[in-house]
TrEMBL record:
It holds the Pfam family Exo_endo_phos. The keyword Nucleus does not apply. The keyword Membrane applies. InterPro entries: CCR4/nocturin_mRNA_transcr (IPR050410), EF-hand-dom_pair (IPR011992), EF_Hand_1_Ca_BS (IPR018247), EF_hand_dom (IPR002048), Endo/exonu/phosph_ase_sf (IPR036691), Endo/exonuclease/phosphatase (IPR005135). SUPFAM superfamilies: DNase I-like, EF-hand. Residues 463-498 form the EF-hand domain. One of its GO terms (molecular function) is calcium ion binding. This is EF-hand domain-containing protein. Keywords: Calcium, Membrane, Transmembrane, Transmembrane helix. It comes from Gossypium schwendimanii (Cotton).
Amino acid sequence: MRKHWNPIVLIHRTNTRPPLPFPCPDFNQLFHPSTCILIKNLDHMNQDITVPPPSNSVHKPKLRPTLNSYFNKPTLFKAFFFCFLPFLISLFLIAHLNQSGKNSEMVLLAGFCNDSDIANVDSSESKSVPFQETRTGHACSTMGEPCISCTTFNILAPIYKRLDQQNQSVRESDFRAFWLARNKKIVNWLLYERSSIICLQEFWVGNEELVHMYEESLGAAGYDTLKLARTNNRGDGLLTAIHKEYFKVLNLRELFFNDFGDRVAQLLHVQSVAPFSINQNESVQQEIIIVNTHLLFPHDSSLSIVRLHQVYQILQYLETYQRENKLSQIPVILCGDWNGSKRGHVYKFLRSQGFVSSYDIAHEYTDSDADAHKWVSHRNHMGNICGVDFIWLRNPHKSQKLLKISWAEAAFGIIKYQLKKVSLAENDAFAFLRADSSGNHITYSAFCDALRQVNLTGLSHGLSFQETKDLWVQADADGNGVVDYEEFKRIWDATWLQHMDEDCSLEDSNEGIVEDEAIGFAVKKAVLFPHEVEKGIWPENYSLSDHARLTAVFSPVRLRCLKQSL
């Protein structure tokens, strides 16, 4: 009697089938065009499964299928067991791990995860990462230890971004689609990182649409935004954003340098929303001073004195504000584009005032020339690369020189640099400053004339009369009205970073009488994006800005100052 076959399932491979993203044993055999799989109805699965033999072949007896027979044949069961079932299990595990990660408080900084395609910016930052509302932010808790994060980023104003090197007048600001797309990517990254403090430079304050986009996006994410335009309608300025979950703004001061570069600075006095623990029985809502600024670009070496003077004004204002408000016990964070490297006068000036570079502390770099070019953060319009973006930290009670003394040393450093630039050695420099003086000394009038010859006075951006007078007072150590060779040599050989003993340390300090306690910060981590710049390389396909983005993470530490017994 002829055997009746139940309906069959015919599976075959077509040219349009996409490749599978995971391995599958014998999958090609399973989907070979000549392969047919005949499956009987489910209600007869206990019966025989046979394939009609060719007409010229010898008929073989029917065999009852066993579990082993299913694994020895290219069947759908085999495909499901070896391919699809593990795939479904892996999806379940990934979903479970992701959910666990969202609930974890062990994440110190979301942007520091190992998956550069998700959280970090690598050289292929042409694709923006969408903002994820589930991101926990950088102000987090790690093993019960709170931390805050700070990001500084010169976002390159479209009015300055050159699109054609052959035609410098073609700027991105003329093409709305270009600057809007780039700045949307920048906003997405800022929202993704969700730092406690965001300091932006070259913010295009002159474009209402761009300003609205930043303020609306950051505001919806919980930030207070404060902007400040440069003077004389330069078009760009500063934007500082403070996350309201972590800080509230107590005071805002705007600094206008009113100088050659029309530069400005923002000083924010903020207080933590959540208290920081001082000890087991006491906690305080920590106050911090934050400064955001962008110093003048040194188109000429004589402009170095302008940048130095801008920093001097910031520190003078900071000193006055802390004294008037009795805030000597709080840390200070300076952020921005300083337009000078670690070998420059501004860097050394700030170091002499007790500030440390958070990135260099995190990576254990020193102030030596050997570590001066380990990293870069900017490629300027001339194609030169250098590290100019810093997040400076000064803790309470940090030893520092008197501001006026540090300023004089920094100014003398620039004078020395200008003299060496024209190949004047020590003896020749003394003779140049002495000019036509009859004695073996430098007079005040000769000193002023020499400064004018090296373009440090007599210009709108040079040293003022009072500043020149103050320098002379520092040079004339014995006050006899002239500077002899020994006094000159003391200036010429002066070292910037003389050792200064710490007068404040961590809680577990050695012997001594506790004079005072304060909350400071320890640098936990600092990262530059894109990652190539951390190795001193500027990636050619990085297009978000001509600056790298710098983010630092700080954790509070309890400090105490020691006063030795007499």
